[in-house]
Amino acid sequence: MNGLLKKYNSLSISAKAGIWFVVCSCIQSGIKFLALPIFANIMTVSDYGTVTLYTSWMNVIFIFATLCLGRANGVFYVAMVRFPKDKDKFTSAMGGLTVFLCILCFIVIGLSTFIFGDWMEIGIPQYFAMCIDIIGYGIMLLWSLRMRYDYSYRPLLLMTIAYSIGTVIIPVIGVLHCPKGISPASMEIWCVSITSFVIGITALLLLMKRYFKLFSFKYWKFAISFNLMLIPHYLSNVILVQSDRIMIARMISEAAAAIYNVAYTLGVATQVITQALINAINPWMYKRMNEGRGNTVGKAIISLVLIVAILVIGISLVMPEVFDIFFPESYSPALNVIPPVSAGVLWAFIFNLYASIELYFSGNKLVSLSSCTGALINVIANYILIPVFGFIAAAYTTLACDIINALMHTIFSTILLKKNMPDVDVIPILPVWSIAIFTTVACLLILMLYPYPLARYTIVVIIIVICLIKRDSIKKILNFKSMV
Residues with Cβ < 8 Å from 136, sequence gap 6 or more? Predict the structure, then answer.
């Protein structure tokens, strides 16, 4: 232990921050996954379906209410590089802009509810819960980006723990002690929303402490013009993920949407790692490209893609036992959804990497075109296939659209690189795509091994042994900032 502490203390601030940022992501997603079987067991499938439908709609409305100012692959990191002397001013202005945009969106939601009634089919009171949930979560994401950029891991760790525990423990207590006349779904939604709002307001006050003014015409204009072009991209990504639940709820039932949501959430378990990697890679990759060292990025990217592939395959291998232990039998039909969904995580990681290059060169329109194409194909395919094959079809349509997205982002980023940096190959295509294709085939074949636990766990043991043998190489890969 003393040796580990000594080694940890010798790390640079960026290396320490990288470790704790991954820890933060693991805490948030880990508690989220822990909550999944809890709510599946204390709520009926129908009630959990309502919560699923609410979450899907909130993720769609969130795009318009915040313009995704708190996204890692958006305006924030670009602005940090472009306006290095005004970081506090820009961050504070984005907090003010988030609040302003949310208020406008809430007015629209209120009017639409007055005119059309419960058009989301989640219950009128939940519309107001959604409003406060969005504003709180939007500001918290923005604040988190600034903490990551400054390598301020201690406050981010505390905020992550507070948010993760607060949005799980408080709702569980609320559902278990839900008064008569109030649905458990409504109780869960309101508990999460209030917690999110309180933490979001705290984050806003912390932003204002650095720089008090929340308005800046220059930065509001810059952020809106930059991210507005990305709205189709953000919306398409959300539609690609969330439209499945909405369409399943409408075409089959809310219970079917709940079952699919459980499977999808477990299938994308590795996103906790991929999102943390994207958050760390983007500012590092931008700085390297800005310094004319874009060619030094490829080796690290390929290695990270390989690690994500191994994690994706591992998740697919152990899922039958996870279902048997943690979930009621009513959720067992979801098991067949997991392998294609898990494979889609790797493709999503890849297209986000290539999209980051497009954003560096302000190729916002190309990013949006790629994402819109994938989302449109997904909706059309779901509309045709879900009534025929059930909710399982949604997993395969999502996988197919993730691959289409990755292909288009790869092509467009290559065009932009040849135009702006003709001698630079930031992310080599052949090795990255080869890993992704192999992983996809492996995940689909694993589905055939689900009745044979001995075969699956033999593969798991082999993977673990290889990782232990190569542990020094893996440590070096994860510390990608030290790579040349």
Answer: 193, 195, 196, 197, 198, 199, 200, 201
Dist CA 367 CA 37 (whole Å): 36
In 159-301 the beta strands, taken as DSSP E runs, fall at: none
CA angle 464, 437, 261 (to 5 degrees): 75
Measured distance CA(423)–CA(411) in Å, rounded? 16
What DSSP character marks residue 294? G
Could you tell me the sign of the dihedral formed by the alpha carbons of 472, 477, 481, 484, in that order? positive
Print burial letters for 152-185: b (CB count within 10 Å at least 16), e (below 16): ebeebbebbeebbebbbebbeebbeebeeeebbb
Q: What residue type is 34 in one-letter code?
A: L
pTM: 0.69
Cα separations in angstroms, 264 against 119, 138, 162, 271: 25, 23, 25, 11
- Report which residue type is found at 304: L
How far is residue 13's CA from residue 475's CA, in Å, rounded to a whole number?
Answer: 17
H or E, element range at 27: helix 13-42
Question: Is the sign of the CA dihedral 51, 57, 62, 68 positive or negative?
Answer: positive
pLDDT in tens, 284-297: 788 787 777 767 77
pLDDT at residue 197, as a whole number:
93
Q: What is the mean pLDDT of residues 350-359?
A: 86
